[in-house]
Amino acid sequence: MKAIRVKQLRQGNPSIALETVDDPVITHPQEVIVKVLAVGLDGTDKEILQEKYGVPPQGEDDLTTGHESLGVVAEAGAESGFQAGDLVTAIVRRPCRNQSCVNCRNGHSDFCQTGEFVERGIKGAHGFLSEYYREDGRYLVQVPTDLLEHGVLVEPQSIVEKVWDQVLRVQQRLIWEPKTALVLGSGPLGLLAAITCRLLGLDVYVWSRSPQDSLQAKLVKDCGGVYQTADEDGGLTAYAEGLGKPIDFVLECTGFSPLAFEAMAVLAPNGVLALLGVTPADRKLEISSDMLNQSMVLENKCVIGSVNAARKDFETAIYRLQQMERVYPGWLDRLVTNRMKLEAVPKLDFASIPIKAVVDIVPVEQWRGLVKQTNEVEYSFSV
Questions:
Q1: Among 12, 45, 47, 265, which is most exposed with the fewest C-beta within 10 angstroms?
Q2: Where in the chain is the domain with CATH 3.90.180.10?
Q3: Which CATH fold topology does 175-299 show?
Q4: Which helix (H) or strand (E) holds 46?
């Protein structure tokens, strides 16, 4: 089968190639072979493909990339819980093997304490940017067929759902009735965060570098949010003060660390700042540390970081994507701005992607014929 590989990661000077690799084979009754329909690309993939910082499996030099997957079960082991034709996505992180990690030992590898976890397509395990992959049924999540066209977005939406779930848990410390959310950044994650906050009933403001006539700005406005192009002269603080209302919830989706510190200052008393973006850099910054510390303490502010997601977050993401399509039909279609074939990935210029790129392993017009037509997927959603 064909797969996108970052080659010679352990040897230095790695390269990207479309290669032919062995087809996966079931070796355990709990395993499943998945035929990949599509894989989404995000900032992590950009860094892996451009900076080539991914970690291959132990004993190997190459890494198959891609972690946002949508596929259909081609072959299912007798104890996997799946059948051929099931539409699925895959959880990205796998638990570490350290027996002292209480979270990994109890099904919460997204809160791994040791850092020894494995992430498919990122760290220590091959990803999904290939024609097929093998997976333990425990790490697959069935997707309803009415979400066939947008199922590749389940993984990025799960990140948003995880942070909202964690914020609700943190805010059990008080009576919290948030009204206003400020989203920093208008990439795929920022836009999904914005529309999610709108569906949660919040007034949403998005502050980003894209111009007012951009597709990003239009998507924000079309889901009822307010978009503001970042003004280098005024900055975030001036913009937040100009809103004239408390900012209860800030989602930092750019990974630009100076914004994170500025966001702490503009956050309302009792508010929460969620950090969702990370940009590899060696940046130094001078801040008014005493004033910031005083604000955080005296006004009961909270800052949390969040990355990766658990099964329940994937399941809630499925619900939320269905809700998005129902309330704002066509919005998700516009979020995906670039579709390409597997062969195009080695020469991909990420700067040419306005918002979101998806690699179609199988032509879209063939998808429905491969999937078992059923919507009988029941989850206990955390909404």
A1: 12
A2: 2-155+328-370
A3: Rossmann fold (3.40.50)
A4: helix 43-51
Q: Which residues contact 235 (CB under 8 A, 6 or more apart)?
A: 262
Q: Where in the chain is the domain with CATH 3.40.50.720?
A: 175-299
Per-residue pLDDT of the chain (383 residues; tens, 9 = 90+): 999 999 988 877 788 999 999 999 999 999 999 999 999 999 889 888 887 778 999 999 999 999 999 999 999 999 999 999 999 999 999 999 999 999 999 999 999 999 999 999 999 999 999 999 999 999 999 999 999 999 999 999 999 999 999 999 999 999 999 999 999 999 999 999 999 999 999 999 999 999 999 999 999 999 999 999 997 667 899 999 999 999 999 999 998 888 989 999 999 999 999 999 877 667 777 777 888 888 888 889 999 998 889 999 999 999 999 999 999 999 999 999 999 999 999 999 999 999 999 999 999 999 999 998 765 666 655 56
User: Domain 2-155+328-370 carries which CATH code?
Assistant: 3.90.180.10
> How many whole angstroms separate alpha carbon 152 and alpha carbon 40?
6
Residues constituting the chain: 383
Between CA 289 and CA 121 the distance in angstroms is 38
167: Cβ contacts below 8 Å, ≥ 6 apart: 249, 272, 274, 304
